[in-house]
């Protein structure tokens, strides 16, 4: 082997660069190829998960919820399957309610929606002058905070001064959490990232068609053109983006050869497949978290067999999901001391 083709020894600077992620070609002095790495190692117990080991913060008056309630309220309409599943449960609960003189169907519907969206529901007692129970109102869970002292609750709207409810007049229903017992946590929390990804995919697809300046294809030209024709084509392509895009483009080449102009798509097919995959996968995650049969949400089956009998799915869904939710709201009867919540016995649709 000659000295010219022999691999030279790397210098200290090149060795340091290679240890940091740069690849240095030792046999080629004409150019250097640099590579970079991304994605640092993440610990199992990150700073975000360490917060699960702490108690809910309080300001000597009320506790702050472990999850931002305004964020859960915004995420309610992030995905059509997410909001539709919650609305379905809310409507079925409200339809099964037998209104009493203390609780209206409108107040119960608001409490049911708060419980399903935020994991907390609050009923406020309104009493007459003699101290008797007049009615049970719905207090928005987004603005109610549990006080540090037992039995006390605060109204914290944010845009107005906070106020304290009369002690002993607010009753809380919570979805149990494994980290604390002060506030409830919604059951769909594990699928919230999928719902947000579903929204991001839709918004990205909208921007993809709105801006009109994405790299949709490559125009490869290798024919013979008159002077200035290439500049004219370049100018026509520049004018074809933005509002009024997807225009037709006419090109005439008298001396050109067959195949001299080629259109090579680079992003459309791949982006379409990726979009459909994200939408379907995130939809399945959300429906699994809500445990809602797809035929109850109007989803079109992908196969000819369909999803099965909708009446049987409704009966199973009512027994497995709606009846357990009914038992949660029956706890208000023990808290108030009267039968404020009462449900009708349901006859199965399959029967």
Could you walk me through the main structural features you see in this protein, from its secondary elements to its overall organization?
This protein is of the alpha+beta class and 351 residues long. Helices cover 37% and strands 11% of the residues. The chain is built from ten helices and eight strands. It has helices at 12-19, 47-50, 69-75, 80-96, 105-118, 192-211, 229-239, 268-290, 310-329, 331-336; strands at residues 120-127, 133-139, 144-146, 153-155, 163-164, 170-174, 217-221, 261-265. A three-stranded antiparallel β-sheet has the order 2-1-6. Strands 3-4-5 form a three-stranded antiparallel β-sheet, with no helix packed on it. Helix 4 (80-96) packs parallel to helix 8 (268-290). The chain is elongated, with a radius of gyration of 31 Å. The N and C termini lie far apart (90 Å). The relative contact order is 0.12. Residues 2-7 and 21-31 have low confidence and may be disordered. Belongs to the phage portal family. PBSX subfamily. This is Phage portal protein. Residues 1-10 have a biased composition (Basic residues). InterPro entries: PBSX_Proteobac (IPR030935), Phage/GTA_portal (IPR006944), Phage_portal_PBSX (IPR006430). Residues 1-24 are annotated as: Disordered.
